[in-house]
TrEMBL record:
This is ornithine decarboxylase. Its EC number is 4.1.1.17. Homodimer. Only the dimer is catalytically active, as the active sites are constructed of residues from both monomers. It catalyses: L-ornithine + H(+) = putrescine + CO2. The modification N6-(pyridoxal phosphate)lysine is found at residue 100. GO terms for biological process: polyamine biosynthetic process. InterPro entries: Ala_racemase/Decarboxylase_C, De-COase2_CS, De-COase2_N, De-COase2_pyr-phos_BS, Orn/DAP/Arg_de-COase, Orn_de-COase, PLP-binding_barrel. GO terms for molecular function: ornithine decarboxylase activity. Pathway: Amine and polyamine biosynthesis; putrescine biosynthesis via L-ornithine pathway; putrescine from L-ornithine: step 1/1. It comes from Culex pipiens pipiens. Catalyzes the first and rate-limiting step of polyamine biosynthesis that converts ornithine into putrescine, which is the precursor for the polyamines, spermidine and spermine. Polyamines are essential for cell proliferation and are implicated in cellular processes, ranging from DNA replication to apoptosis. Keywords: Lyase, Polyamine biosynthesis, Pyridoxal phosphate. It holds the Pfam family Orn_Arg_deC_N. It comes from the Eukaryota.
């Protein structure tokens, strides 16, 4: 379980073998150099000693030479830091992590230990959270179009909180899980989102929502709150103000029907890259809550952040596997094209084009390299010509076997990756610092004591 259990006892210190990793204790296992391993519920975590960092891990992976499969370095310290930051900046908003964004069990396990809730959208996501020890009362089944089978399963697991946005869904819930606590999802779209969800989910707040509340009332169902999702990859923090205001109007209408709504769910749509702080979002949201749902209203506020929690936690290490030089008819170089071991069918999301070049780590450090820049295209490995990572970007010349390091790769990467064309999905290596590991243990112990005290 959560015991800090060092599985391997014979550590080999590689100091001198590769600069930068000498502070880590590495163990040789199955021909693969790895860190001190701790396990919890069968997940293997590589433990980073105090002052070691992801940079050291990158050095280690690079020192092992190019591989066929891309590598994801998952830094759980980053997830822990994001959670603490959320708690500080949005103290009234209880985060329910959207599992769909990255369902790595180590992320789920870490967030359970930190006390976060979960937004699950399928039976498999619910199963994952429960298997990891999650509490059913800390799950919202946040899909407005649920299968009957999954509803039966949710009910059997004691999951009561769920969203809806239409009459037929209400009929289904009424038949299968009439005791459920229902959250009406309204449509409120950001004008600046990469993925607008309103086309598919959420009812019109003016015309449809009042009618749905009346219908739920006529069925005797328990509606407990209002939710919205402004869209993923949303760069407009101010849209939250309008969305919260629209929700407030429906709280008032529901009251006129005899409902006493107590839950506001402000969805996802927060940035997660390392250079995109949530501060402006927090300022807008906190201001809107104070105005429309002051503390004395006793309304509980939750959110469903996905991208925020995981985007910056994953660093991808890919390799250059092939290269083509495209020349003009006169013979001058027009463009350099590289074929990597990762692409759109792996870690990259075509809705989220790379705007800056990756860090380059030469495979052969002895080779003298020119500083000249060339127009560059990075392709993924498959035979599909849509498998394009970036093009027209100025980069130094790369060689076969060079490593390309992409940061902020944690959101909607592995969950969407396929084995198309037989290419390997990214291998995930999970890292956590001893400090964070011990903190998680402490949090878990505290919560256990608190539960016992109640
Ligand atoms: C219902 C719901 N909640 C939360 C999320 C997570 O959104 P984000 O990654 O933008 O935070 C999504 C993403 O599609 C979603 O559909």
């Amino acid at each position: 379980m959560w015991g800090l259990r060092t599985v391997f006892h014979s550590f080999i210190n590689l100091s001198g073998r590769s600069q930068g990793i000498s502070r880590l204790n590495w163990v040789v296992r199955s021909g693969f150099r790895d860190g001190t391993i701790v396990t919890m519920r069968k997940i293997r975590y590589n433990l980073l000693e105090d002052d070691a960092s992801v940079k050291d891990v990158i050095e280690l992976v690079v020192s092992q030479g190019p591989k066929d499969e891309p590598v994801h370095i998952l830094d759980l310290d980053d997830v822990v830091a994001k959670h603490q930051n959320w708690r500080r900046k949005l103290p009234r908003v209880d985060p329910f992590y959207a599992v769909k964004c990255n369902d790595d069990p180590a992320i789920v396990q870490t967030l359970i230990a930190l006390g976060a809730g979960f937004d699950c959208a399928s039976k498999a996501e619910i199963e994952l959270v429960l298997q990891r020890g999650g509490d059913p009362s800390r799950i919202i089944y946040a899909h407005t179009a649920k299968s009957i089978d999954s509803l039966v399963y949710a009910k059997a697991c004691g999951i009561n909180l769920m969203t809806f946005d239409g009459e037929i869904e209400l009929d289904k819930i009424n038949q299968v899980h009439p005791e459920a606590s229902l959250v009406l999802r309204i449509r409120y779209d950001s004008a600046n989102a990469q993925v607008s969800l309103g086309k598919k989910f959420g009812c019109d707040p003016e015309h449809e929502a009042p009618q749905l509340l009346r219908y739920a009332k006529s069925l005797g169902l328990s509606v407990v709150g209002i939710s919205f999702h402004v869209g993923s990859g949303n760069s407009d923090h101010e849209c939250f103000y309008g969305a919260i205001k629209a929700a407030k109007k429906l709280f008032d209408y529901a009251q006129s029907l005899g409902y006493d709504l107590r839950l506001l769910d402000i969805g996802g749509g927060y940035p997660g890259d390392h250079d995109k702080p949530i501060d402006p979002y927090a300022t807008t949201i906190n201001g809107a809550l104070q105005r429309f749902f002051p503390l004395k209203s006793n309304v509980r506020v939750i959110a469903e952040p996905g991208t925020y929690y995981v985007a910056s936690a994953v660093t991808l290490i890919a390799n250059v596997q092939s290269k083509r030089i495209v020349r003009t008819p006169q013979g001058t170089v027009r463009e350099l094209m590289y074929y990597l071991n990762d692409g759109l069918f792996g870690s990259f999301d075509w809705l989220n084009p790379r705007k800056y070049p990756p860090q380059v780590i030469p495979g052969n450090r002895q080779l003298v390299r020119s500083r000249e820049q060339f127009s560059t295209t990075l392709w993924g490995p498959t035979c599909d010509s849509t498998d394009l990572i970036l093009s027209g970007m100025a980069m130094e010349e790369l060689q076969i076997g060079d490593f390309l390091v992409f940061d902020d790769m944690g959101a909607y990467g592995t969950v969407l990756a396929t084995n198309f064309n037989g290419f390997a999905k990214p291998k995930v290596m999970v890292y956590i610092s001893r400090r964070s590991w011990e903190q998680l243990e402490l949090e878990k112990r505290n919560r256990r004591t608190k539960r016992k005290g109640h």
